[in-house]
Amino acid sequence: MNGMPLYVQGLWACSVLAQLAVLALLVLKGNFRKLPFFATYVCLNICQAALIYVMIAYWHPAKGSSTEQIVSWVSEAATLVVQALATTEVLRLVLKPYRGVWGLTWRVLLGISTVVVFFVFLDAVQNVDWAIVVAERGYHLIFATAVIACLLFIRYYAVVVARAYKWLLAGFCFYSCTIILINTVVQVIWYRNNPYTEHLWQVVTLLSFTVVQVVWAAALWKALPVDLPRHNIDSDSLYLSVSPIINQQLRRLNEKLMRLWKLEARPH
Amino acid sequence: MSSVLLVMGFVGVLLLVVLVWVLRDPRKLNKPDDDLASNEEWGQRHVAYFPQVRQAIDRKDFEFLALRGLPKLTKRVRKERRRIALAYLACIRADFLKLWRLARVIAAMSPQVGAAEEFARLRMGLAFSLRYEIIRIKFFFGIAPLPELGSLSEVVSRLSIRLETAMKNLGESAALASKLTSTLHDGRGLDTP
Predict the structure, then answer these.
(1) Are residues B64 and B111 in the same domain?
(2) Which residue, A109, A174, A182, A219, is the most exposed by fewest CB within 10 angstroms?
(3) Is residue B21 located within the same domain as residue B55?
(4) Contact (CB<8Å) A256/B148
(5) Least CB–CB distance from A238: residue in B106, B141, B176
(6) Do residues B107 and B140 both lie within one domain?
C-alpha cells in the first residue's frame, strides 16, 4: 500500500481498531450524550483513516503530490479543530461547578495561548519550508500548554476530577507532547536525509496514538459519573471580604521575612 | 540543529514531565497531619508557644552559663535550644500552609475568584517559602532574630483568627445551602418513598 511497510500497516490497523473500540464504548455506555464533541472527534479520526486508506488504495496519487497533501492536511486540520472543542467540553464538565475557578482559568489560558502563539509565529517565520510541520507542532504546543495549565489549576484548587475525565485530558495532552517531540526529532533527522525518517515518524505517531486510544477505552469502560449539584458559598461577599485580608496578612508576613533576611549575623 | 529545535525538544520533554507530575494522585501526597478537617489543634496555633521559645533562645541564659564557666554545658544547651527554635519555625510554617490551603478552599467554593488576589497570594506563598528557608538556614548557623520571629508569629496568629471567622461563615453558608436543597427535594417529592 503506497510503499508502506507491513509493520506500519499493522500498527495503523491496530489504531483504527482501538478507535472503533472507543467509539463503541461511547455509544454502548451512552457517554456520547455527555461528550458529543469527543464522540465527533473519534468519528472524525476514523473517517480520516478511511479517507486516507481509500486515497492510497484506489486513487493512487503520487507520493507527496498536492492531492495527497491537501487531503491529509485538510482532514488533519478539521480533526484538530474538533480536538480543541472536545477538550474544552471535558474541561467545562470538570470545572462547571467551580464558576470562579473556571472564570480565572480561561483568562489565564487566553494569556498563555497568546504568548505561545507569539513563539510559534517566530518559529514559523524561520522555517517557511516546514510551514505545515511547524504549524502542527505549534498547535500541539499551544494545546498541551493550555491543558497542562488547566490541570495545574485543578490541582492547585484541589478540584475533584472523575478518573475518566482525568484520563481523557491526559490522553489529549500526552498525544500533543509526543507530536511536539516527534516533529522536532523528525525535523532534525530529515535535515540529514535519513531514508527511514518517514517510517519512523509513522511508527512513533501511530504508536502514541494507539496508546492514547487504549487509555481512553479503559477510561470509558464504565459510564461517566453523574453530575451532582454542588453548592457554592451563597454570595461573592465572603471571598471578596476574606481574600484581601489574607493577602494583606501574607504581604505583612513576607515583609517581616524580608527584614529577617536583611539582618546581619549576630554571634551568641 | 537550530536553537529553536532544541528549545522545542526541551519544551516537549518538560511538558511530559509536568503532565506526569500533575496526574499523580494528590491524596498520596497529603500527609495525615496536612488534613484540615482532621486537625484537632485547629484552634490552637503553635504561635501560642512563642514566649517559651523566646525564653529558650534568649542570649541571657547562655551568657549566664558562660559566666559560670560552663562552656560545654553552654554549647549543649545552645544546640538543644536551637533545635527547639527550628522545630518551632517549622510548626509556624505548617500553620501558615494550613491557613493558605483554607484560603484556597474558600476561593474554590466562591462563585467569583479575583485573578489579582489569587496571583498575589500565589506569589506571596512562593516568597514565604523562600524566605522561610533562608531564616531556617540563619537559625541553623546560630543567628537568632528574636523580635522578627515574634512578629512573624503574631502575623500567623492574626491570619488564623481571620480565617477561622471565614471558615465559620463558610460552614454556615454550607449548612444553609444543604438545608435549602433538602427543602427543594422535599418539595419535588424526591426524598419521599
Answers:
(1) yes
(2) A109
(3) no
(4) yes
(5) B106
(6) yes
Partner-chain contact B178 A251, CB within 8 Å: no
Residues of B in contact with A244 (CB under 8 A): 117
- Short-list A167, A161, A152, CA closest to A98: A161
DSSP state of A144: H
A267 found inside a domain: no
| Alpha-carbon distance values, A50 to A58, B33, B35 (Å) | 12, 55, 52
Residue A39 belongs to a domain? yes
Whether residues A252 and B170 touch (CB distance < 8 A) is answered with: no
Which residues are CB-neighbours of A209 under 8 A, at least 6 positions away? A15, A175
> For residue range A68-94, what is the model confidence (pLDDT) as tens digits?
777 777 788 888 888 888 988 888 888
| Residues of the domain holding B122 | 31-188
pLDDT in tens, A203-238: 888 999 999 999 999 999 887 777 655 555 555 566
pLDDT digits (tens, 9 = 90+) for A137-173: 888 888 898 889 888 888 888 788 888 899 999 999 9
Query: Do both B18 and B44 map to the same domain?
Result: no
For A204, the domain range is 6-224
DSSP state of B1: -
ipTM: 0.75
Number of residues in chain A: 268
Residues in chain B within 8 Å Cβ distance of A250: 100, 120-121, 124-125, 128, 159
Residue A201, C-alpha cell as written in the block: 515518524
Q: How many domains does chain B have?
A: 2
In a domain, B167, yes or no: yes
Please name the residue ranges forming H helices in chain A.
6-28, 36-54, 66-95, 99-126, 131-156, 163-190, 197-219, 237-262
The three-class DSSP label of residue A182 is helix
The answer to whether residue B125 is domain-embedded is yes
d(CA A104, CA B146): 40
Selecting from B8, B143, B178 the residue whose C-beta is nearest the C-beta of A263 gives B143
Whether A212 maps to a domain, the answer reads yes
Considering only alpha carbons, which residue of chain B is nearest residue A244? B117
Q: Which of B63, B74, B104, B131 to mutate to test the interface with A (most CBs of A within 10 A)?
A: B131
Confidence of residue B43 (pLDDT cuts 50, 70, 90): very low
Closest chain B C-alpha to A60 CA, distance in angstroms:
34
Is the confidence at residue A106, as pLDDT, over 70?
A: yes
